[in-house]
């Protein structure tokens, strides 16, 4: 049985007050809060085991290396990878996606096509733009339907994925619309024409059990700070036989095999893609976060997320002047709920809600083309996680209703 009180006790920051109100943290799609044991794991590493990995042959170096590589094993098991050698540590999901776009982009040539979607985070858009600009390849994209789902019928009709397609890269879960995309279906389509399938799992991996084989992808990027881990650590998972074919992304120490002035050879994956000192303490913290989430249970977490999201959709959807972007029901939907309030700029609403202790996001959420497609300049976004309660959602709904009345009554008075 889900025990919100016990879970919340693991997150000391949730005891804070903001402007005299209890903190209601609804910005977890941006970054999750960290349980005490993750913070303590990072602290213990720095205070008791701090050293560089791989190079140092002394006791501290051996301890640090064991902890770092142990975290890699935990990540591999978390996503059901075949081997920890398929796990590349990066500093965030953006770097992981840039690594994918740069290395796969080296294969592209004029006439080739890369397919993404209009709902992508800039981190899964701009790197592919750069890859296409450098290679002469063409960038194409899925459109969306009126209810915020990928328009698969139009894509099929228009032959979006075809024999010219070399890479397809799509978000598993939209960070704006909350839409859960049919990644396996798209991956099968991509593979039928010989294309590589990449998925941005930044919003999906923290919210649901992940099996890279079931997803059908070739590369999966995600980040630690959205799944209760520290900032500064991201992951790119890839099939080993694909990683083995890809060139280095960055040059430096540890990614090499033999270095001569005339040229170098490179280490096998994953170290080929981890130049220099890696995020050691951050990886240790990510391993602790995975331990924590495994004890909670990802299926139970996903069920809680669906319940909280449904409550949020119902509450916000019943308010005057509030328009939800994306699916209005918690079916095939993640936890990000973006909305527009008539007569209120999202930045103004964000500040007004903060005055009552309610933390949400306001802006285009690094998805400007999606907002343009939706014909809105920006939006507000609320997103819960495993520590979010129905009472916090009620506080959000009440605060949004108050904000709508506050700004619109002021507008009426000024007429």
Automatic annotation (TrEMBL):
Needed cofactors: pyridoxal 5'-phosphate
TM region(s), chain numbering: none
Domain Aminotransferase class V: 24-396
CDD domains xref list: SufS_like
Entry's EC annotation: 2.8.1.7
Catalysed reactions, as listed in the record: (sulfur carrier)-H + L-cysteine = (sulfur carrier)-SH + L-alanine
Keywords of the record: Pyridoxal phosphate, Transferase
Gene Ontology biological-process entries: cysteine metabolic process
Enzyme category, top tier: transferase
InterPro entries noted in UniProt: Aminotrans_V_dom (IPR000192), Aminotrans_V_PyrdxlP_BS (IPR020578), Cys_dSase_SufS (IPR010970), PyrdxlP-dep_Trfase (IPR015424), PyrdxlP-dep_Trfase_major (IPR015421), PyrdxlP-dep_Trfase_small (IPR015422)
A single MF term (Gene Ontology): pyridoxal phosphate binding
Domain of life per record: Bacteria
Family to which this protein belongs: Belongs to the class-V pyridoxal-phosphate-dependent aminotransferase family. Csd subfamily.
NCBIfam families in the record: sufS (TIGR01979)
Role of this protein: Catalyzes the removal of elemental sulfur and selenium atoms from L-cysteine, L-cystine, L-selenocysteine, and L-selenocystine to produce L-alanine.
Name by which UniProt lists this protein: Cysteine desulfurase
Native organism taxonomy: Bacteria, Bacillati, Actinomycetota, Actinomycetes, Propionibacteriales
